[in-house]
Specification:
The protein has 190 residues and is an alpha/beta fold. It has a single domain, classed as 3-Layer(aba) Sandwich (Rossmann fold). It is built from 6 helices and 6 strands. Strands 1, 2, 3, 4, 5 and 6 form a 6-stranded parallel beta sheet that branches. The longest helix has 26 residues. The chain is globular and about 45 Å long.
């Protein structure tokens, strides 16, 4: 059986964002794990407008090309890791919009979270995300990567320089995602 596809979704589009260096680090870590085929999906590049489909996503009757492309992208994924900052104790509007565009494509797939922020490390954003992905019938893993006071981990070159705690958390989450993804694949194919 082919390795499952893990999509690392960059959930910030703000100019000067840190999400991309964080996602690049995690993407590399996921590739090194060898458990997945790994894709990096940047919502800044996907550039979905605010939800503009006339039909409810549950109907899967998409009329816009951007929705059809987004549907095909998400359908291809077996598991997801959302890389998100925390804005005002929550996750980004662009991520909520991307989630809301689809329905069936998310179902019975594992979800993990890499968050960053100040003292909370983005945990409040993840708490909100857990509710949303669960409503979409995704299965979030308990393990997560939370990066508090993230500027200390950014090098002058703009890359993320993780510590051992971050690397261990990433590896632990990837192992859990791999276990859950295998079980959920059986459920989706059944």
């Amino acid at each position: 059986m082919d390795r499952p596809v893990l999509q690392v979704i960059v959930a910030s589009t703000r100019p000067g964002r840190v999400a991309r260096p964080v996602a690049d680090w995690f993407h590399g870590r996921a590739v090194e794990s060898g458990a997945f085929q790994v894709e990096l999906i940047d919502l800044a590049e996907v550039a979905l407008p605010f939800l503009d489909e006339p039909n409810h996503p549950r109907l899967k009757q998409y009329v816009n090309a951007h929705t059809k492309e987004w549907s095909a992208t998400v359908e291809r994924g077996d598991a997801f890791v959302f890389v998100t900052p925390e804005y005002n104790h929550s996750f980004t509007a662009v991520l909520k919009n991307a989630l809301d565009y689809l329905h069936h494509e998310w179902q019975h797939k594992a979800a993990g979270f890499v968050s960053y922020g100040g003292v909370s490390g983005g945990t409040r954003a993840v708490n909100g995300l857990r509710q949303v992905v669960s409503t979409l019938k995704m299965v979030p893993v308990l393990e997560a990567v939370n990066i508090p006071f993230f500027p200390q981990f950014l090098g002058e070159d703009g890359t993320l320089h993780p510590n051992d705690v971050m690397n261990t958390a990433a590896d632990t989450m990837l192992a859990e995602l791999a276990k859950l993804t295998g079980a959920l694949r059986t459920l989706r194919e059944g």
